[in-house]
Amino acid sequence: MSRLVDWLAGGLLITDGAWGTELQARGLDPGVAPDTWNLTHPERVEAVARAYVDAGSQVILTNTFRANAVAMEGDLEAINRAGVAISKRAAGAGALVFASIGPTGKMLMAGEIDEERVADAFAAQAAALAAAGADALLVETMSDIEEARLAVAAAKSTGLPVIVSFAFDSGKNRDRTMMGATPEAVATAMLKAGADAVGANCGVGVEYAAPVCRRLRAASGLPIWIKPNAGLPQMNGSAITYGTSAEFFASHYAALRDAGASFLGCCCGSTPAFIRALVSARSASS
Fold it and tell me: Pick from 29, 32, 104, 257: most CB atoms within 10 A?
């Protein structure tokens, strides 16, 4: 926790925005794992990271969301190490690099995969990310508490600070994960698992985020990571659109800060313009 406390000593930190759509704008074809571009198109990946740093991000992620041995194949150690190296080049001395660890895409509860295989996949990814020099590890877009526990245990073994973030997109109030977990259940379980911070990302738009943020903070007492989508996802022909403007997103800055957000950024559908708007909103409210 000490490094997180040091980083947050000056107040809320602005993180980054979406990566997948930004890579698609640079030529990533549908169906291609974005992570593979760390080896095949590193300059385009670095352009995304650098755009967020230039926009004012104080924390940027890595293009390693799917790079575990359950979710994809390939030279995963090289992909993970390259992902950290790319983001560190873009960050320079101006931003921290938190390495992204996403879910496996398999359901433990349904028996699609066993715990040992999941734990091994997360352990290998976490070790590669840590060895490459990440400042912290972010376990993100989780829906299953048990899978998140396995990921946190693997990440904690590296000695780096560990943040774990869930997607709350279900239930009448959009305050439950796909598996039915509430913010209170998530916060309690992740605190017990040893996470250094807990949060919410993806799932829903910014207008739903403050209540979830407040509940996570109250139940855990930990720093809170918040990265809502740029609106609710909608199908527009064969494409997914989100529809929220950067200005609308940033208009919720004060509410999220007051709800206890420690790290604030944007998820699916956002661009560097959203980060610039958040930076402006922070300046205006200080």
Answer: 104
